Amino acid sequence: MNNKNLFTIKAVSEQTGLSTFLIRAWENRYNAVSPERTDTNRRMYSEDDIEKLKLLQKAVNTGYQIRNIANLSPVELKQLVKPRHYDRNEFGLSGNIPDSDRFKSALEAIKELDAERFEWILTNAGVELSQPELLNKFIIPLMFTIGELWQAGEIRIAHEHLASEVVRNFLINIIRSYRTDESAPVLIIATPQGQLHEIGAIAAGVTAASLGWRIVHLGADLPFSEIAYSIRNQRARALILGIIYPKDDLRLASELKELAGSISTDVKVLATGSGAAYYSEVIEEIGAIMVNTPKELIESLDLARLKQRN
């Protein structure tokens, strides 16, 4: 064995707060770390092992599943656990945060982890508000506020996850409620690999569905090869690509170029979300369009549909 600092599993447990059982499980099942062995087969962990275990613990506490992140490098894990910076442009939000009874009731339901009550509030809002009001004056400001509260430490990650899951399902159900015929143009909704937040992209999909587009929702964290395959398979005319966080993904720029090279130039790629601005150069280079407001979204979709007719 070399002379670098090595630590027993008990010492690692004390430094990381992880139980020795969990450390062994992450090692044996997922190859998260590879400790050295003494002549008596005793595990000895390096400082790098300890750093990675701490990062893994932080990522798991944030909501990631260990099986999906165990083989990431410390650099990649640091990207996952960086504090998420919310801003109003993430969802095209403008103006003041609402101060209505409905808004306050929704926040209370989320803080109480009352999914059923929150679903009822959303359903009631969907009946009483127009679709633009529902999205831009209720749901989007609500999600922004939830993000701010989480970042300030006033709510837990469980509250944000519950809110996101309920809103996500609610918006997808709205999309499914629109009936389109076989001749309707197809629009794909997805977020690239490493991009886990898709509410903004789905909200854009609701607007597209109301304009007569047939929506194919692929979900979050998808390799570009799968997005390109789906575009070709469905003969899609447009793609809404949600780019939120992280904003410094070293792979994203090159993968955007690969995506553009593997689909028809007739496919309109619309990049939405606060993170899109950080990739504006490559977005412009591949002929995609950054969409920051509902108005820009509608105009871009109208142009894509007009191009199809021509």
Structure characterization notes:
It is a single chain. The chain has 310 residues and is α/β, with parallel strands linked by helices. The protein is built from 14 helices and 8 strands. Strands 5-4-6-7-8 form a 5-stranded parallel beta sheet, with helices on both faces. A 3-stranded antiparallel beta sheet has the order 1-3-2. Helix 3 packs parallel to helix 5, helix 7 packs across helix 9 and helix 8 runs antiparallel to helix 9. The longest helix is centred in the middle third of the chain and has 21 residues. The N and C termini lie far apart (71 Å).
Jot down its keywords.
single chain; 310 residues; alpha/beta; 5-stranded parallel beta sheet; 3-stranded antiparallel beta sheet; 14 helices; 55% helix
Compact description:
With 310 residues, the chain is α/β, with parallel strands linked by helices. The chain has helices spanning 9-16, 20-30, 47-62, 66-69, 74-81, 101-111, 115-128, 131-151, 157-177, 199-210, 224-234, 252-262, 280-285, 294-309, and strands at residues 6-7, 36-37, 43-46, 186-192, 214-222, 238-242, 268-272, 289-291.
Number of strands: 8
- Please tell me what the overall shape is: globular
Which structural class matches the secondary elements?
alpha/beta
Give the strand order, joined by hyphens, for the main sheet.
5-4-6-7-8
Distance between the amino and carboxyl termini: 71 Å
Tell me the helix content: 40-55%
Main sheet summary: 5 strands, parallel
Query: How confident overall, as mean pLDDT?
Result: 86
